[in-house]
Amino acid sequence: MLKFEDEQHLSGLIGGGLAAGDWCTIGSLPKPPPEVHAAAGNGPLRPAFVRPLGIAGYVLAAPVWLVVGVAGAVEALFELVFGVFTIRKNRRLNREAEQRKAEIAAHGLNEVFDGDWNAAAGQLLLRWYSQSSHPKRLVLIAPGRIVLAGPPKRVTLGALDESDVLYEIPGDQAVIEDPLNGRLDTNKFRIRFSDGSWIVLTVTGKPSDIHAQLEAMAKEGGENPDGLPVVVGPRPAP
To answer: Among residues 214, 212, 170, which one has the least CA distance to residue 193?
Structure first.
């Protein structure tokens, strides 16, 4: 979720009108056909490695993660012991998890994109890491356009301050949507292009500004007076 001061910075970056924005990641890109990859410039299909400063940061943080890991293991042990007395509940949760997994798969939210490298989404992914070697993108919604921003190269600190606009997609060429319409808390959404192709992005923080925007519009029956590049249906019944 973006903080107020971040919104001011990003509104200036994209020329104002920012409605919502989130840091997002994309799944591991599958390998495209060689001829398609070559035609797009043979750009990288993975983010860059962490720079030495970032590696040092991870090493310094290792004791903290060790404590977190031990605490997690103790918690898991208690859950295992008490789980013996909640077998029926666990079975119900397992069924719900399977239903959740099936619905996510039915809408393609477990995929990276629709699979067509020649369509708009595939062509965007072929150039995804050529524009920036950073693994994250700032996805910004503004009236009439979707903006993708990020650091030109992989950094570990001050990513927001070093962000540039990487892509600006007009609203008549793509929209943001949650095909589950808020029924499941997946923290995922799709950018769907006018040719029907799409990519799936995962919000890295909570709460999500983008999902909050979609939910607010769903409560209003999908009304979109600001011309935002989003598609929502009526709010699902509780």
So the answer is: 170
